[in-house]
Amino acid sequence: MSAAIKTPRGALLATLLVLSIFPLFGSDYYSELLTKIMIMAIFAMSLDLLVGFTGLVSFGHAAFFGIAAYAVVLVSPQYDPSSLWLVLPAAVLAAAVAAFVIGLFVLRTKGIYFIMVTLAFAQMIYFVFHDSPLGGGSDGVFINFKPELRIGETQLLDLGNAAHFYYVVLLLLVATYVFLRILLRSPLGHALAGIKSNEHRMLSLGFPVFLYKLAGFVIAGALAGVAGFLSACQFGFVTPEILSWHQSGNVLLMVILGGMGTLNGAAIGAFAFVVLQEVFSALTKHWQFLMGTVIVLVVMLLPGGLSSLTQRVRRLLVGGGSNG
Amino acid sequence: MDLTTFLIQLLNALQYGLLLFLVASGLTLIFGIMGIINLAHGSFYMMGAYMAFALTSATGNLFVAILLGIVLSALIGFLLEWGLFSRLYKRDHLDQVLLTYGLILMFEEIRSMIVGDDVHGVRIPEMLSASIQLSETLSYPVYRLFMSGVCIVLAVLMYWLIRHTRLGMMIRAGSSNREMVQSLGINIDLIYRLVFALGVTLAAFAGMLAAPVSSVYPGMGNQVLIICFVVVVIGGVGSVWGAFVAALLIGLADTFGKVIIPDFAGLTVYLLMAAVLLWRPEGIFRRI
Amino acid sequence: MSHEVNRRQFLISSAAVAAGLALPSAPLFAQGARKVRVGLMLPYTGTYAALGNAITNGFKLAVEQGGGKLGGSEVEYFTVDDESDAAKAPENANKLIKRDNVDVLVGTVHSGVALAMTRVAREAKALLIVPNAGADEITGPLCAPNIFRTSFSAWQPAYAMGNVMAERKHKNVVTLSWKYSFGEQSVAGFKEAFEKAGGKVVKELYLPFPNVEFQPYLTEIAALKPDAVFVFFAGGGAVKFVKDYAAAGLKSTIPLYGSGFLTDGTLEAQGEAAEGLLTTLHYADGLDIPKDKEFRAAYASAFKMQPDVYAVQGYDAAQLFATGLAAVKGDVGKRDELVKAMESATIDSPRGKFTLSKAHNPVQDIYLRKVEGKENKVVSVAAKALADPARGCRM
Amino acid sequence: MGELVLAARGLSRQFGGLAANKDVSLDMHRGELHAVLGPNGAGKSTLINLLSGDLPPSGGQILYRGQDISGWSPDRRSRAGIGRSYQRTNIFPAFTAFENCRLAAQSRAPRALHVFSRAQNYDDLRSAADRALEQAGLAARRDVVAATLSHGEQRQLEIAMVLATAPSVLLLDEPLAGMGSEESQLMVSLLQKLSADHAILLVEHDMDAVFAVADVITVMVTGQVLESGPPDQIRSSLAVQEAYLGGGEPDDE
């Protein structure tokens, strides 16, 4: 199995350390930015399960992100904070159910057609929220009170509190990462890898490939739901734009930018994408031109994404001795 | 709804559907033959519309502008294929999708840098500016009928090109097996370049043709892109005939959706899509 | 230039992020007397880019006229492109409030984005001046001491138009607009006045935003044969609608009226299809107001183009803030005094002098305008000193 | 003769107007190696694809232990015990030989819901995989990445993967193609060993091998069964000689 990906334990732990102490020293704004990056990292990793590990290039992953965010809105009472116990499972469940239903449709197609059909279905969900009064229509909808975690009368966590929220996001990021790592080593993970490598053979070996893909699709959708839940909580504001095809494109870009099928790459991609946006938009009015140029250049010149860059540099320094 | 109104709505549906076909046909050609999902298709439509505006202002005549625009957009398509896409055929579909995603951002900003962000109109040529009285209150602009006529002519031309010409045969062969065609000594690279240029030109042409009616404004490409994708998804992979049927179906669904179930007008097209996919996961028609 | 400072500071701060370092929240480059930090959050890309630029120009013109100062204080700008993307709005607003520590937030065009900004500003207690977005809520349920608007509410021009159309003896009217809150609020405002004056809205038609396939609706209007049609559209959609309406031959049989921006910044594209259309707004061409003439001349010489209503709103945003700054001598820490000065200000606007309502929305004249050539010529004052009812505002 | 396991009854398959298989009937018994011979384009691969479910039939029936399975999907047939190998090597190139077989074995025990356990920790799957590698003569190459195996070894792996799924029916599409003589020898003896308790369908061009191992031979021409019977009967059949054996060397492919 392609378990040849060596996880640089040291780097991971160092990252975790920096992330866990950052709010103690960093300014509010950068803590929030980092929170956003971590949310996007969860989102990107969930997509990596499909794109990088199962070979399903979904161009509609934002649908599940968005559905979870809207679930938060619909479940939250108007004048009281909602309970985390209720909202998080509800949001994740909503995303998973949506992934199940959409999966039944889209997984019947393959390859390039799959890309298009996922795009079209996500767009359909976009219009459901955009054109129906369900979630405030095209103007979006606000959450007046963020969820909180209570046991009895004591409030343990308040997601409206930036510091609480930061650590909840960090915790969920780590949990998602660990969960995916475990999943990838499990029989299901191996089966998904087999499907990516040779779907036809999996079928003739007796794997009910459709069901496995559906399982992967639902899990990825549910994890995207975790990210969507967090995103709704961070800003307390949900609009149809969070499930537009641009969002699907952006998260796909994060996965590619970082290097797909590595999990770490997805997180790196999320970081790079958000930081690039920050830097470019501060540089010029026409910053999207720079963004577009970077995308084109990465695609043309860096097929393995940013995480392949380190290998390339290493190879260059070492002198081409090793063959990757 | 009385009969006259119904017939006029039917005309509206057909007219919208035909224009949709024209925009989507280039997308489905490139998609079916080259296996590229061209997200920048909407940008080419936008580019065409802006060309119609700029060239009509410069030459004073929409038809001259369209002719120049066709040459320009074919050239752009040719260069893009040569410079970018031809280097990606060995790669995953994903890379091509992302490439076109990046191009959208670039084209939109290039447009902003060159022409600015204002809304512009394009004049309907004098000879087509009349209207035909349909009911006592409503008349129908001749230019819209002219657009529909052009769309029908192009549909027939494309059908003929693909069914009955050598190029069409090669195109059909190329769509099924790139290596095989190559081994027959046919220059597949050239065919791909031509097909891409044709696709770009079709999108730009649709933009130019529609410009006098739709006017030109920033972000107009994104609006047509998604609906074009729905056309292709419903019609089936790379099927020009499928795109034709799908575009007309969407025209009907959209027009009558707006009249009959106004509260869900934005959704009717997607409900149609879901229904079709439930019945046929790969669209109505699977091949050219 | 100020923009340069912004960028440098940003690069340093992003380096700090990368290194995981702390970043002092005090401004890094403050030297000598403290500059007033103005955050412009406006669309600089996408459909509304032209509007964002006009507002920015208007604002900067006011500063320039004050000798590079606003109410006596030096100004430092921080800009963010909001892309008219509501999904990014809270984050973009935070960028200016928390990262750049701006003293005032100015924005924006898109109502959805502005609503999100208002929420953020309320929570962060940041001073916000809205230079365009007309969503009723901003100076309605969301009103707050720190929220101001220098444009209008959706209700205002629509309400004025309701009276105008009733006076013009139209009895049965069909309305058409995009299905989003701004459109719905416009229709509601119109309906309130029109039906109070004895008219009847026969049918309210809505199409999904930003769909521009109007033909089915035109056919339906032709079948309904109302006395007149009232619409709300803006930008590219407004251009297409006005042209389609004329091309369908409806313009001569069923008069078309519009609220707000149906014919603003779009006349060049609409051509003769727009000729003679009547609309209501708080600004018009050919106003006999000295301030307007002076403003237009200054704007034209500074930016080599004619100003529009958006430029006026940006200009007034700067004027409003200048009044407050002058009252506290640039000490933005004195928030209460600043707000007090701002809410009691009389703004000498190119549109004519206006004051602010208790909910901080302009109490202003709404003009009835008629399209003549490339201009929205003023016909009359449709409503004198019209104040938004500010429903839901508890201030 | 062992029990009748898999049977084709009047099976046909059309591609456009072309009949690739027409009214094909044959029986496969446990303990019997059934070889299919025929020139290129005779419809041998189509037959295997029909039996394995890779292609849906245009007409006729496929009976598995008396049950009509014509409508079953390939994976369902595989789980029921019908294993197949491919003419063109069809493996997981990035995985090791062991992992290829371990994954194949996993298909018998779908543990899709065991998300929190390591795939590598299931002893039953590991031993099934190792046994299959051993049988196919690949034990020494256990931990080599499949893509770097030699062509012959990949053919062996192809068979090993099928064996790891513990099938009762084996549909083998030219398993000897591209193998060296030593490897062929090994494979032939493996087939002989397997035929004791499996029902095997063997499509093969290597005449010597076929006549050496087959219990029953069916000769196909242009999609139809020309003759079927024990090797001796086929060898002496005039019809077969005329249509096939006598008509010069059969095509290579």
UniProtKB/TrEMBL annotation, chain B:
Cross-referenced Pfam families: BPD_transp_2 (PF02653)
Keywords: Amino-acid transport, Cell membrane, Membrane, Transmembrane, Transmembrane helix, Transport
Localization per record: Cell membrane
Membrane topology: Multi-pass membrane protein
Principal place of residence: membrane
Regions that span the bilayer: 16-40, 52-80, 142-162, 190-212, 224-252, 259-279
Alphabetical list of PANTHER family matching this protein: ABC TRANSPORTER ATP-BINDING PROTEIN, BRANCHED-CHAIN AMINO ACID TRANSPORT SYSTEM PERMEASE PROTEIN LIVH
Similarity comment: family membership: Belongs to the binding-protein-dependent transport system permease family. LivHM subfamily.
Protein name as it appears in the record: Branched-chain amino acid ABC transporter permease
From TrEMBL, chain C:
Signal peptide positions on this chain: 1-30
UniProt keywords, alphabetically: Signal
Keyword presence, DNA damage: no
Domain Leucine-binding protein, residue spans: 35-373
The keyword Ion transport belongs to this UniProt entry's keyword annotation: no
Sequence intervals crossing the membrane: none
Family: Belongs to the leucine-binding protein family.
Name by which UniProt lists this protein: ABC transporter substrate-binding protein
Annotated source species: Aromatoleum buckelii
TrEMBL record, chain D:
Entry coiled-coil feature ranges: none
Pfam families: ABC_tran (PF00005), BCA_ABC_TP_C (PF12399)
Superkingdom, taxonomy of origin: Bacteria
Keywords in alphabetical order: ATP-binding, Cell membrane, Membrane, Nucleotide-binding, Transport
SUPFAM superfamilies, per database record: P-loop containing nucleoside triphosphate hydrolases
Any one GO MF annotation of this record: ATP binding
Domain ABC transporter: from-to ranges: 6-247
Keyword Flavoprotein found: no
InterPro entries found in the cross-reference section: AAA+_ATPase, ABC_AA/LPS_Transport, ABC_transporter-like_ATP-bd, BCA_ABC_TP_C, P-loop_NTPase
Name of the molecule in the record: ATP-binding cassette domain-containing protein
